[in-house]
Amino acid sequence: MTGRGRLRRKLVVDEKTAFAYVRCGLPDEWEEYYLSLETRYPSRSTKNRWFYDQWNCVRRFARKNGIDLRRRFFDPEGSPRKLHDPLPLPRRRQLAALYLAVQRLGVRKVLVDDRCRLDSDEAVQSLLVEAFRQAGVTIIEASTGFTLSEVLPRDEVLTTCGPDRSRTARRQVALWKAMAARLKNQSGLGRRPFGALPDEAPALARIRELYRVLPKSQWRTRKGVVQKRRSFAEIAAILNGEEVPTRTGRAWSARTVHGILDRLGLIPGRKPRQ
Fold this sequence. Notes:
Elements: E1 17-25, H1 32-38, H2 49-64, E2 68-77, H3 93-105, E3 109-112, H4 122-134, E4 138-141, E5 146-147, H5 148-151, H6 154-161, H7 163-184, H8 201-210, E6 220-222, E7 225-227, H9 232-241, H10 254-264
Parallel strand pairs: 1-2, 1-3, 3-4
Antiparallel strand pairs: 4-5, 6-7
């Protein structure tokens, strides 16, 4: 031991090496300092029974099967007495850090005490398991010993869930992967949104101007709905006609215009994207 805590053993990766993932709520008495230590060093404290029930389940499974459990990644949530919703997938930074670590270090096994630690939605679970499988990593459920890629086949699960639920799950996993990419680039915030750079301000102002409500004489009716604004495709066509530059040099598209307006919260009935 040193004054700064316990030193890590040098990581030697073989077929028996595994990492663990833990996700649970925090009791009210946990302080920020204690949490910072808990994410770095093992402990036998019983301040968080939810945490140690998970961790001990994983450790028992590892000992029984001769697995060398070397690191754990912990995504803390708010107190269950205060929050009703779990930590959203796109905010689970430690799960993203785990995804990057197993690829960088060549670890081939990840242990969770229960598959619900990945997500409560089975469709999201299957997509996450498939993402790790494509990276050459097997996720094992310690409480049952099941290999999740075998019990959660992506195509079968998504077919059962239906198109709407599958589409939502794919979007959540895509946002999570984007966060992992930002962590990999060590940028923290990732690429700055369009309009943040000085030379992009005029283009952003023009998009705002084109999306304003038109004079009543220019309103149109389509399929029984009165359209008071230009469509995203029309705005993109105008921007291309005016040769307004994009960040990538490609032509404007309806999807790009929609994404910018959606992020700014200018689309009626939609909240700004974070």
